[in-house]
Amino acid sequence: MMPKITKQVIETLPVGKTLTENGIIYRKGKTGGSWWISYYVGTRRIRERVGKAGEVSKKDAVKALKSRQGDIVRGRFDVAKTEKPVLFRDFFKDYIRFASANKKSWSHDEDRGNKHLIPVFGDLPLNEITPWKIEKYKSRRSKDGVAKATINRELALLKTVFSKAVVWGKTHDNPVKRVKLYRENNTIVRYLTKDEALRLLEACSDFLRPIVLLALNTGMRKGEVFRLQWRDVNLKRGIIKIRDSKDGKDAYIPINRTVQDLLDDLPKFDDNPHVFPGMKTGAPLRDIRESFQKALRKAEIENFRFHDLRHTFASWLVMDGVDIYTVKDLLRHKSIEMTMRYAHLAPEHRKAAVERMAHLVETATDTQQAQKEEKGKVVELPESASA
After folding, report:
1. Fewer Cβ atoms within 10 A, N terminus or C terminus of the chain?
2. Which stretches does DSSP call E strand in the chain?
């Protein structure tokens, strides 16, 4: 049986030892003692520091324990408030460890978080990041000239991080849910003109040109290009297999003669299965940002991302008269609405379609008029037939 916590017992207690009495705890350290309380929420045991001995007493600890027990009974108890505050930078590391094992684009999250979110929110406890502070971040990024779509991606990441923090019991609220994202115009598509495409290919290094050509000729996403392995390339059948694509399913895409010749000329390496191998043995290529930006500058092309090669692929097909449903299948879109952003491209092509309709109408009208004239003719019978 543990002795009651009295002044005499505390005085004789060795440094580093603890006394417990009905949920009240006294710990003796090198610089003095401290009072704690211990209680259960369901099956979970919680220990909470009340204060330093001398600043608070045993009576204060008893009052604190009764207050907590009362909150539990009334259903007003919040576990997150009793725990040591978790800094955003520390939790973000936990999130990235989770994302690296469960999300293909985790490296983008890591880059975006470390470059933009950590400098602003890193030293703040999760429960001190409020909608107002997030609104200020959003406004500051906008004033710096950052695109609305980019800011939305940053806020989306922040929202995902907080969602995990709530699920894992590190905080009780997701403040990003109460922050409105910028409205984006997803119908605006940046694609290369034929002249720009030629300039870009001429500006590419020998290393970069096959990557750009593959994306331009297939509409493959950057991650799909980087992860492509030789086992998924069938040059005889003219097909590439996309493993675990964006919708989580394997997909098969046709390749043209340009891509077949390109892939046939690329070297293969015994220690790496990837078509575009990375620096580490067996690893895929990770980044081409610097070389791609250098090529864009040399080609004098502005406001263009690698993903816009996919837009170029789709746009050129639409402008060449390929129907929107075929383009949808080639892009592997889930819905036709995603592909309809390309339907408005190049008014001259729409005008050509209307002109074709005019030709059809004129042909139909001429045929109908000819039939009427044919019916209105008086047929004179030979005299022998009328006799």
Report:
1. N
2. 18-21, 24-29, 32-41, 44-52, 233-234, 239-242, 251-254
